[in-house]
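Let us work through a complete example step by step.
Step 1: write down the sequence.
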Amino acid sequence: MSNPVLNEGMFHKTDRVSSSEYMTTNGAIMRTLTLGLIFSIVAMFTYNYLKETVLYNNVPFIPFIVVSSIAAFIVALIISFKPATAPFLSIIYTILQGVAVAAISFIFNNLYNGIVLEAVACTMIVFFTMLLLFRAGIIKATEKFKAVVITATMSIAVFYLIMFVISFFGIRPEWYYGSTSISIGISVAIVIVAALNLILDFDFIAKGEHYSLPKYMEWYAAFGLIVTIIWLYLEILRLLAKLKDR
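Step 2: predict the structure and record it as tokens.
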């Protein structure tokens, strides 16, 4: 799920600092690359581990998803409410998500061979496209834009929660979990909202230096961007699976 945590309210909640102890755009970029590298290493290691153990030893892999996802969610909540913990907890969050995403990717790739590489490629294309649109000023993070994207994001969060709750009663609507036109349309809409959240992330990073946010906010910004990228990837993965079912 993406992050309204990177919103302009954070500019007023953090203390101002001087000299070299404030957040910089380059610093946030380096922190993002660091988390991205950690995520990639953990995900590849986990994926290869599952490939070697599950297929040949019938080792259950669902716990990889459940335990790591719940732990990652708890860590994300702590970071959201306590941004100063980001330099440490963002790394833990990234490791946990690396395990969870690798396990989910393993399932999808066994159902649709090659789908993971397709999803990764699509995610990268969307990411750099949104970055270019932001840098070129074609899409600007105006107050109205932010309000619309955050409202849409929170609506999707509520939708996820409803789907999660009713799943305990064995209810899995075909119009969402299936490969119907409506289901695909919903996935496309969610992918679009996730992509637009990248604009909010870029805007937060760009303004962080201007507002002289504390140095630890570089990690906080990187954490927020990683959250969005992971959400975008998982939704693209789901969308591709639905299209392949068609």
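Step 3: interpret the result. The chain has one domain: 20-245.
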